[in-house]
Amino acid sequence: MALRHVTPRLSAYQAPKRWLSTSRSLLAARSPSLADVSPDKGAEFNNRQQAWRKEISDAAARKEKAERDAAAAQEGHDKKSGRLSNLIYGTPEGRQLDKDIERSFSQVLARGKYVHSIVFHDVKPDKVDEYVELVGSWYPKMASMPENKVHLVGSWRTEVGDCDTFVHIWEYQRYEGYHASLHSIQHRPDFPEFDHKLKSLITSKKTSLMQEFSFWPTVSPRQLGGVFELRSYTLHPGNLLEWETHWRKGLQARREVMEGVGAWFVQIGDLNTVHHLWQFADLEERRARREQSWSVPGWGETVHKTVPLIQTMKSRILIPMPWSPVA
């Protein structure tokens, strides 16, 4: 799922026009719920999922071909130049070794390329629709402005779990981007009014700053439909690296039958916490896919080795908001 290496990043997460028109109609009525998700759309979800994965695979193939062509052209140039370095790096073996070293280094750095925030808003039950209207008009606007240096990964409402809780995941260019984003948005002349209104609609707000695991980059905007599951794990202190080692292997098994969105570990906020976000056609499909995971070699071993690392675990079923780029 290394999507970031094969798909271009958007300058801002701008939803297609039809998303925005849908948002207006829904906001005028009520906030989305699980009842809005048709329970018989599993086949359509699978078709969209396959199309999405094929698009990513084709993009990866094109990128790899372009790299091979560039390497071949450079190799031909080096042979003509007769430089002494050709004795080492001019051979296919030498170039592959150099490429492997570079790839390994970039994978290590990938963990620090982005910082994500996960924000939980507990909304007053009788203020949910007002909240949806307020946030639905503000968040997409802030994400669409390049000067704010922020991307909105997605916004969801909790349907099973802490009801009337809304979850938002934002993406920044490292911590500098996070700080710059806060500075830019809070200095807008219309921010005080928004902030005052927001505080009147919620009972609490909780924010954690996270980084994504290098083996599981966060997906780019897409629409597959269905429901989401946010699984949150509190680990025993000191076990994060061991968790990552096992999950790096286990994800290979899981992705054969399930569609992941992203995985993050908290660095500031609820420490020793890991969040995984999955997407399913519906709840019945979720049950079937999770059961199917046990038949994939390697998954049972991952569970066996990671369960002892966990203090607590929590599952939330989420419904994407009309403006959510990942939906």
UniProtKB/TrEMBL annotation:
Ranges annotated as spanning the membrane: none
Residue ranges of domain NIPSNAP in the record: 122-215, 228-325
Basic and acidic residues bias (residue ranges): 64-81
Record Pfam families: NIPSNAP
GO cellular component: mitochondrion
Listed InterPro entries: Dimeric_a/b-barrel (IPR011008), NIPSNAP (IPR012577), NipSnap_domain (IPR051557)
GO biological process: mitophagy
Stretch list, region Disordered: 64-90
Similarity remark: Belongs to the NipSnap family.
PANTHER family (alphabetical): NIPSNAP-RELATED (PTHR21017), PROTEIN NIPSNAP (PTHR21017:SF17)
Protein name per the record: NIPSNAP family protein
Species name: Myriangium duriaei CBS 260.36
